[in-house]
């Protein structure tokens, strides 16, 4: 089967010439490696597209409430730091954009959420310092340059060596652990998920689960795979908390209103008695 050029070009760009010929032109649906690769690419670009909007509901929720109550600032700081390191590492490793592209969008959205939470807490100076520091770290880690020597040899140089960046990527595993744990603890202590967005939490869980598959299929890197496995586990806990505490916030508000009404009625009765 032959596709029109405007469909063939993006298809080849996504799954490559070999798999395009096998799956599309020859309709060889017994080609398991190409089928797995095509599924991985589809999931990968789907995750990247989802990553562009995954935290928009969280941003909207904070803006509407004019508060980040229930959303852990330390969690977002650590998560954003891990994202910055992973983004630089994947970029320097020349990994396919379909395997990490959402990290770029998540980083931008995390920075926006941090800025909003700190702004509504009256900590604008802290917001500027934190966000500037994260952007500076990302620039330093990702920056590379090429130097051509007299004999024509091209040497790649970087402020942070590949070995050092690989170590930092390994460090993102415990960072991801500690970025989720404060939020999990805060949810447990409050018995509520506060201003956390259900859309963001559930999509994060689904996305990290899909990322395990795309990483196994396309990227032979145990560090990246370990990070996604850990993220999937902790995102599962957050998703379970979201389901468990689904109506907790509304119940609390109702309880507070009821208590207020009872207190008001008792005060009224006391005043009436005094007048009598």
TrEMBL record:
Its main location: membrane. InterPro entries: MannP-dilichol_defect-1 (IPR016817), PQ-loop_rpt (IPR006603). Pfam families: PQ-loop (PF04193). One of its GO terms (cellular component) is membrane. Keywords: Membrane, Repeat, Transmembrane, Transmembrane helix, Transport. It is found in: Membrane. It is a multi-pass membrane protein. Belongs to the MPDU1 (TC 2.A.43.3) family. This is Mannose-P-dolichol utilization defect 1 protein homolog.
